[in-house]
Amino acid sequence: MIAFVRGRVAALTLSSAVVEVGGVGLELMCTPGTLASLRTGQEANLPTSLVVREDSMTLFGFADDDERSMFELVQTASGVGPKLAQAMLAVLSPNGVRTAIATDDVKTLTKVPGIGQKGAQRIILELKDRVGAPTGTAGTPAASAAAAPWRDQVAQGLIGLGYNAKDADKAVESVAADAGDRPDVGALLRAALRTLSKA
Q: The domain 65-127: what is its CATH number?
């Protein structure tokens, strides 16, 4: 088990970060909110979870230990694999997932691409006793970004989750008024996903 990765960020893509550790570039699959907090050339320290399959070994990187714990916990529900677990954390913060499960909020869980009504009910049923109580607010740590790049980051995050570029651009426009002086890319991405789920 690789518990965390610390090193220089060598490259960033729509869905992953390459972190150089001892001369080796490790690719970590990350949520758009986590990617928004990273900068190429800067040092990063990310908790990780290694998912081993017959044909692949995939390393997932997280903003903090809470996000990693939630990623691993939701996969214990039947029908939830690593990609769906990551999609949940792209749309909701770990505390948002806790709140949705604790309050039987099927509607919030179905905002995640790939989770339908029955899937949400199953996740709530299987995890309610194990997910723990929500703490404080359901937000995530603010990921500050310069005024212009946040639009690109949110649009790329939506495209990475399977939406087309046209819909992604419309969603970005719909949340532009909420950006303010210090845009929180994670919060804006979740707001954009909410507008797309209503459409």
A: 1.10.150.20
Bridge partner list, 184: 144
Phi, psi of 122 (to 5 degrees): -65, -45
CA angle 81, 102, 198 (to 5 degrees): 70
Residue 24 CA to residue 107 CA, distance in Å, equals 43
Strands 16-21 and 57-61: unpaired
Q: Shortest CA distance to 27 belongs to which of 53, 55, 1, 46?
A: 46
Q: What is the pLDDT of residues 182-197, one digit of tens each?
A: 778 888 888 888 888 7
Domain 149-198 part of CATH 1.10.8.10: yes
Considering the entire predicted model, what is its pTM?
0.68
Q: What homologous superfamily is domain 4-61 in, according to CATH?
A: Nucleic acid-binding proteins (2.40.50.140)
Q: How many angstroms separate the CA atoms of 97 and 138, rounded?
A: 8
Q: Where in the chain is the domain with CATH 1.10.150.20?
A: 65-127
Indicate where the chain has its CATH 2.40.50.140 domain(s). 4-61
Residue position matching structure tokens 């949110």? 154
Q: What CA–CA distance (Å, rounded) separates 43 from 126?
A: 38
Cα–Cα distance measured from residue 91 to residue 107, given in angstroms and rounded to the nearest whole number: 13
